[in-house]
Design goal:
Number of domains: 3
Structural class: mainly alpha
Order of helices and strands: HHHHHH
Helix content: 55-70%
Largest sheet: none
Number of strands: 0
Strand content: under 5%
Distance between the termini: 44 Å
Radius of gyration: 26 Å
Number of helices: 6
């Protein structure tokens, strides 16, 4: 497999044992039967997708009408959207986020103290502890669990997830960063 990938990078075409490009491997002229095998499947999948998209568009319009009616009746639509989003999140993660928002507001000397009573829950999950360590940028070698244990592996997986979140944040924010 690696040999095939290397040969492609060098511009060589992968060929079968008889020296002829094999069907379905993007390695030369693709026979018509390959297209004939895939085109009906693509057409069917497209029709199913388009049908679902049409239904989804209609349902989204209905949902927007319900939200509009709720707004006309005095409900704060943005608050409803946010609350519904919060309700879908893990409670411990949400409590941590609110506690951190409260902390930052206090550091900014903001008069807003909505989050003053939110207490950071004790995290018992090795995965979540590792995720927090990864988000903070702690080294992977700080894993406090017993090496080789399931908790050790969970912490390491959480740490990697936290690091991945950092990488994604940096990728997304890199255009907004000022040049030094």
């Amino acid at each position: 497999m690696a040999e095939r990938a290397r040969s492609r990078r060098k511009g060589k075409k992968v060929k079968g044992a008889n020296g002829v490009a094999r069907a379905g491997h993007n390695s030369g002229e693709v026979p018509d039967e390959v297209y004939q095998r895939w085109l009906p499947k693509i057409e069917l999948a497209t029709k199913v997708y388009d049908s679902a998209a049409k239904i989804a568009k209609k349902r989204k319009s209905e949902l927007a009408s319900v939200f509009k009616a709720a707004g006309n009746d005095g409900c704060h639509r943005d608050a409803i959207h946010r609350a519904r989003g919060f309700a879908k999140q893990d409670r411990a993660q949400l409590a941590i986020e609110f506690a951190e928002v409260g902390r930052v507001l206090r550091l900014m000397e903001s008069p807003i103290d909505l989050f003053a009573d939110v207490k950071r829950p004790e995290i018992t999950s090795p995965y979540l502890r590792g995720q927090q360590a990864g988000q903070r940028g702690d080294p992977a070698t700080d894993n406090p669990e017993i090496p080789g244990s399931e908790a050790f592996m969970d912490w390491a997986a959480g740490w990697e997830n936290g690091q991945q979140g950092n990488r994604e944040t940096l990728k997304g924010d890199s255009a907004a960063l000022p040049l030094a």
